[in-house]
Amino acid sequence: MTRVRVVDNSEIGKAAMLDGKPPKIIHIYSKIKYGVTGDKVLVTVKGEMKKAIIVGCHQEQKAFIPKFDSNNAVLVDENGSPLGTRILAPIPTFLRKKLKEMSRSKGADYTKLLSIATRYV
Amino acid sequence: MKLQLCSYSGYKIHPGHGSTLVRNDGKTFVFLNSKCRRSHLMKRSPREVTWTVLYRRKHRKGQEEESSKKRTRRHQKFQRAIVGASLTDILAKRNMKPEVRKAQREQAIRALKEKNRAAKAAKKPATTAAPKLEKGKSAMQKVAKPMPKPKMAKTGGHGGRR
Predict the structure, then answer these.
(1) Please, which residues have CB within 8 angstroms of residue B115's CB and are 6 or more apart in sequence?
(2) How many Cβ atoms sit within 10 Å of the Cβ of residue B130?
(3) What is the arithmetic mean of pLDDT over A80-109?
(4) CA of A67, closest CA in chain B: separation in Å?
(5) Residue of chain B nearest A70, judged by CA positions
(6) pLDDT (tens digit, 9 = 90+) per residue, B117-160?
(7) CB distance B22–A121 less than 8 Å?
(8) Of A40, B8, B74, B118, which has the maximum CB count within 10 A?
(9) CATH top-level class for A2-116?
(10) With an 8 Å Cβ cutoff, are B20 and A89 in contact?
């Protein structure tokens, strides 16, 4: 039930952040209880349900994954393509490996969001 | 893996060490160890913490001090023209030989004496002024001599300095 900070420039995301009602995580697509950097997540934004990928956690993660001051997420559709055109916050380079593992050929390709990232950490 | 510098202490971070923190404004901080990280989170300025590189740089500890002292600038004496005396005039006066100078001085004294004598002769009648003239002459001589001297001495001795 964490409220998450949308870090891309998608319209829904921007509107939600401006309203003061950031997206809320309602389900995590992993076997582990808690979401971690790079996990796909189900999120409610402005009354709709969308998928998102966690791009940075305030919680301490495994080694060599940077720690962020807020929980950041990027809104994504079913196929893994991001809803926005640019990601403004720095993105951990660790995601390159993790998202590639998550992606399935002929299925969802989650590495697309790395191409819209502006800065890497 | 590139060698990073700790953003708090300034030490090198070898691969396999350290942690990163990303602030919400996008600023990234790389820390060598939890000591640096905790100091940063405690909002201690590295410039006030004695063992950091920033402190040492600020207080100029170490070898930098020696190298900077040796390189003191030397002021170059530069002769400039003044209003009333162009550069060539100043140089000519400075480089004048002492004999030449002495001759000039004597000439000036003689000229002044002549002028005074002529002035006195013109003013008073010849007979009454004869004994007085002699006295006057000696007095004028004494006055006349020091007059041109300081003038010449000034330009001669202090020509190089402003």
Answers:
(1) none
(2) 10
(3) 88
(4) 5
(5) B24
(6) 888 888 876 555 555 555 545 545 554 454 544 455 455 445 44
(7) yes
(8) B8
(9) mainly beta
(10) no
